[in-house]
């Protein structure tokens, strides 16, 4: 009898727990429904973790959202993923995305990033800012992307990539096996961007420190999506601390020199330029110097919080400029050197050759930027087939009331804006599996529609669109130009084994870092 009574008590206790959880879930679902409008949820209110299962089965965010939209027969809809507070409204329609972005000013969006990424980059990232603060820091960092600054950087790009391709050819001549193309690009772009952004070169910085910084950036990148208590994340956090310390010391030294120069010029008795002037006569140097000039011009060069935010973004800039750009460059070379795309490589060579006069070894900045539309098209088509990310999620943290698609919604709320499924939609991009740079050339006869151009948002969208996209395009075009400058150069690789593959970040990459042989094509 005692055993039966004990079993009954256990069953009753379990039933109470299950009922309590179910009622709590129902209460939360009804509260959400009242605050978030009458949009459907991807999974039943009592099984929120099913979204994680659907995501795992789909293999990517883009495919997951595409599958759920088809299953629900509705757009937009809410999803709930473990570790994400509240629900996220997914907008898979370009018109809906455009409508919500028109409200960005009122809703003060910031980008929703993994907490691990926030900790490694630091809390001052532009992606985490909104409103006036975000506008201010975009203005500060846009100074390093001025035409004068980009023109000053360009010769360094040509020098670095010319050396890289020559060294890869020599390396392949001395061995029978392939080289890892992405590793070479990563190394070259790291040293290049350390010079461009920070003024750090082997002439003024020890190689031990340069290699330590490179290893730290790699560790930081690998830790962004690692579990917060894992060894990989701890390694990333330690690497980030070292990097921030180096960058802070470097930037403090640059500001010190700027202040001393202003004092010598007697610009102001307090040693700072008046807002709107004071440093315009200083020539463009590395990005740190340009940002320092902008801070002085705005009169915030002695604010420790501003300086801390600047350091966080200088860290972010190097990762974006050598990590993200490295992946796109690698994918571009993969597509161009594939046997089925030999005509595309030939067109790029012809365009590059047309940019030079007899006395020039490399094109001018103006010709590189505006005179190579096919190179632009090649990069754009690569980012369509192999985007770095598949979606962006914005957070509206305020409790503002607003109307969306006729529904009243109250924040805080998240909006996920995916674009991966647009890029492979045959209605927008006919023959979507093919590498067709011509689809981005207005006179080609294959030019995509206005709707397709609006759906192409691989650099992000709205006020948080990638700040450095001009710099990224210039770096990638320089690398491509230096590759095709030698008209006999090519990359041979095993086309059955080396493929474009899905991942978390980047969303698409070339398998095994693109192993191949750089040599003369006979």
Automatic annotation (TrEMBL):
The chain crosses the membrane at residues 6-28. Belongs to the cytochrome P450 family. This is Cytochrome P450. It comes from the Eukaryota. Keywords: Heme, Iron, Membrane, Metal-binding, Monooxygenase, Oxidoreductase, Transmembrane, Transmembrane helix. PROSITE patterns: CYTOCHROME_P450. Heme binds at residue 466. The keyword Oxidoreductase applies. Its cofactor is heme. It holds the Pfam family p450.
